[in-house]
Specification:
The protein has 192 residues and is α/β, with parallel strands linked by helices. It has one domain: Rossmann fold (3-Layer(aba) Sandwich). Helix content is 34%, strand content 23%. It has a 7-stranded mixed β-sheet, with helices on one face. β1, α1 and β2 form a beta-alpha-beta unit. α1 packs parallel to α6. The longest helix is centred in the last third of the chain and has 24 residues. It is globular, with a radius of gyration of 16 Å. The N and C termini lie close together (10 Å). The structure holds glycinamide ribonucleotide. The site of glycinamide ribonucleotide has 15 residues, from α1, β5 and α6. Glycinamide ribonucleotide binds next to α1, β5 and α6.
Length: 192
């Protein structure tokens, strides 16, 4: 990864599909001088993503493209990323799997936040599965994105205790809180 040099921030695109609490959190951290990135583009695969509202609130360009893993879609998105000089993509609740071609062609790093202690519980419904398996801990992981689902090198991981009273809703809330701590910290770690 090209490191951020001096006060120049690495231009970042955040990819979302839903409510965008991680996006909002990253935007907040990016405004801080000590964090070496800026959020310059919000990308969503659906216009229904609630997080798209942060585009207007924070005056950040947004793009909605139906992501279908076809070369044409890849080209369209890569063109926008190149035009905007994006060097880092942060997936934040992006519920599509990027194509091999896209990952290969993008000239920068792609990272993701996943709501489990990887390599445990890749994929969906992580909290339901962790509770069902009577795990003592849950957590979240920031990792590099490769073409294998939730399998790239881990950058940061943090755990929380699962209490007897937890259901998957309360656990998701707890985990989201620590996601908001480790995502900006992970970006700082790879860029500094
Ligand atoms: C987060 O918990 C994130 O870890 C998860 O979706 C949620 C998005 O919340 N991502 C995945 O499950 C990816 N496989 P947000 O829209 O409020 O940031």
């Amino acid at each position: 990864m090209r490191k951020s040099i001096g006060p120049k921030k690495i231009k970042t695109a955040v990819f979302i599909s839903g409510k965008g609490s991680n996006l909002k959190n990253l935007i907040k951290f990016a405004k801080n001088k000590r964090y070496p990135f800026s959020v310059d583009l919000i990308f969503s695969n659906t216009k229904k993503a609630k997080g798209l509202r942060y585009s207007k609130i924070y005056k950040i360009k947004k793009k909605v493209i139906c992501y279908d893993k076809k070369i044409k879609t890849d080209k369209k998105i890569l063109k926008i990323l190149t035009q905007k000089k994006i060097k880092l993509i942060c997936l934040a609740g992006f519920m599509k799997i990027l194509s091999k071609n896209f990952i290969k062609k993008f000239q920068g790093e792609i990272i993701n936040i996943h709501p489990s202690l990887l390599p445990k519980y890749k994929g969906l419904n992580t909290h339901i599965r962790a509770i069902k398996n009577k795990e003592k801990f849950a957590g979240c992981t920031v990792h590099y994105v490769t073409s294998k689902l939730d399998s790239g090198k881990i950058i940061l991981q943090k755990r929380v205790k699962i209490s007897k009273k937890d259901n998957h809703f309360s656990l998701a809330k707890k985990v989201l809180k620590i996601e908001h701590l480790i995502y900006p910290a992970a970006i700082k770690k790879i860029l500094n």
